[in-house]
Amino acid sequence: MQSITKRLQVLHKEIQAESIGHTMYKNAPQEHSGILSVDEEHSMTEVSTFRVAYEWTALRDSIKDLKPTIRARFCLCLQLLGLSLLGEYYSDEANELLDRDEESILAIFQETAEPNDLRMFSEREALHCIALMYALLDASGAETGELQQFLDPRFSYQYNQRVCGAMIDIDGAGTLERVDIEEMIKALLRSQVRLYKDLTAKGVIELVTACRQALEQDWVLL
Length: 222
What we know:
Helix 4 (68-86) packs antiparallel against helix 5, helix 4 packs across helix 8 (157-166) and helix 4 packs across helix 10. By secondary structure, the protein is mainly α. It has helices at residues 4-18, 21-24, 46-64, 68-86, 92-98, 102-106, 123-139, 157-166, 181-188, 201-215.
């Protein structure tokens, strides 16, 4: 299992190599060819890397203190996002994801973010990724309200979903918009994360709605 910085580095390099900056950013100008804009294409300073490492530690502590039902919903949201990225529910990769329990899913958030590993990212990008996790926590019912000012509406819906997927070692070209509710019910009933005794279409729709809320571009910044 890769460290969180290694996962995000892979995602960063893939997107740069694919030259899909126009899909990374909402309403991005044509000259964008990667994640960073011209004035942001530089590594973080020593001060900013330590700031990001500090915010990652704060996120880790917030997750440790989650109520059991919120923790389970957060994990199910990550599994749902991963399955929708894969676009299939019965592959080996999907089965491995569903076989993971809460402890396994949340283990990534217990890692230490090493400042030297963060230097390839801009501060804006790194804080956006952390804030995105807070957004998913809040959509799961945590009500942290943390770091909302660092959610960058220029990043695309698909990029945000791929960041969430990176947290659980999943990547793919699928989207949340193509979720098959009935198949997702069957899949999540196989999950080792226990939240629902009987998962219904309403329950899955609530999870999809929570994920959409976190990934949306038109956030209200507090």
